[in-house]
Amino acid sequence: xxxxxxxxxxxxxxxxxxxxxxxxxxxxxxxxxxxxxxxxxxxxxxxxxxxxxxxxxxxxxxxxxxxxxxxxxxxxxxxxxxxxxxxxxxxxxxxxxxxxxxxxxxxxxxxxxxxxxxxxxxxx
Length: 124
Prior knowledge:
It is a single chain. This protein is α+β, with helices and mostly antiparallel strands. It has helices at about 1-15, 45-50, 50-60, 100-110, 115-124; strands spanning about 20-25, 30-35, 70-75, 80-85, 90-95. The protein has a single domain, classed as Beta-Lactamase. It has five helices and five strands. Strands 2-1-5-4-3 form a five-stranded antiparallel β-sheet, covered by helices on one side. Strand 3 and strand 4 form a beta hairpin. The radius of gyration is 14 Å and the shape is globular. The protein starts with a helix and ends with a helix.
């Protein structure tokens, strides 16, 4: 089952130029599924970086902004796009020149995977 999910994520990874990494983690930043290319920046795949989404969404909620759907962070050499798919956070790490709209469009292609993953994670 996990092999099929990894294969599916690798297929999505290869669809977009500049997409380095797709990580599905829990809210605390612990990776559940992760596929990365050789170009992926190591620091952007660490638990300490992945867990920042939870902190940012909590702050947005305190400001009365409502439920956070996604956060896009642009850095000097790459960008990180994180989507709220409770109980998961989906993180995409890309080059700074990658088309962000193409990455956001992957959300629809990830939707069928998430209920299956919820079932697998829930069974453990």
